[in-house]
Amino acid sequence: MKLYEITDIYNGVLEAIENEECSAESMAEALAVIEDDFENKVDAIACMIKGLNASIAGIKAEEDALKKRRGSAEKRADWLRGYLSSEMLAIGKKKLETPRNKLSFIPSVSVFIDDELELKAMHPELTTVKTVVTPDKNAIKAELKKGVHINGAYLVEKQNLQIK
User: Fold this and answer.
1) Would you say residue 162 lies in a domain?
2) How many domains would you assign to the chain?
3) Quick one: which of 2, 27, 77, 156 has the fewest CB in 10 Å?
């Protein structure tokens, strides 16, 4: 039986008792059985949640380890690319083709800025402004708790399930 089915039956029994459709004693036994089923099902689901949380922690740890490995491999590849490039240029080799690889230099142009602050001051027309505005939820929460009315904001009380 699914948890929601047990909940529906439990609520139905409580409603029957309130409407005096049957005796409280006969329903007490039914409630005891249903509560036991409910508790067993809740316990099983809580164990599943704990197992999933353990899996999530393991996956996150593996992601972190893989991220470190990727970073290390990227740094090594960048270093090797720079090393290979400088050595090829040192002997004037701009193209090289082997059975497994084809290497060549492609010219590109990039901008280097000596002093960003000076450039911003001297040429404000060549700068862009990025502004990010977000509500300060902590400040809003503090004001709402003081009783201040803030249009479009209100406190919502939640019930957070804790599983240990």
Assistant:
1) no
2) 1
3) 156
Q: Is residue 67 in some structural domain? A: yes
Instruction: Say how far apart CA 80 and CA 67 lie, in whole Å.
Output: 20
Q: Which domain holds residue 68?
A: 3-146
110: pLDDT strictly greater than 90 = no
Cβ 142 vs Cβ 132: under 8 Å: no
Cross-strand partners of 102:
97
Q: What 8-state DSSP symbol labels residue 19?
A: T
The answer to whether 153 touches 140, Cβ cutoff 8 Å, is yes
> At 24, is the pLDDT very low, low, confident or very high (cuts 50, 70, 90)?
low
Q: What is the mean pLDDT of residues 120-144?
A: 92
The pair of three-digit structure tokens given for residue 62, joined into one six-digit string: 């593996």
Structure tokens at 60: 């996150």
Percentage with pLDDT > 70 across the chain: 96
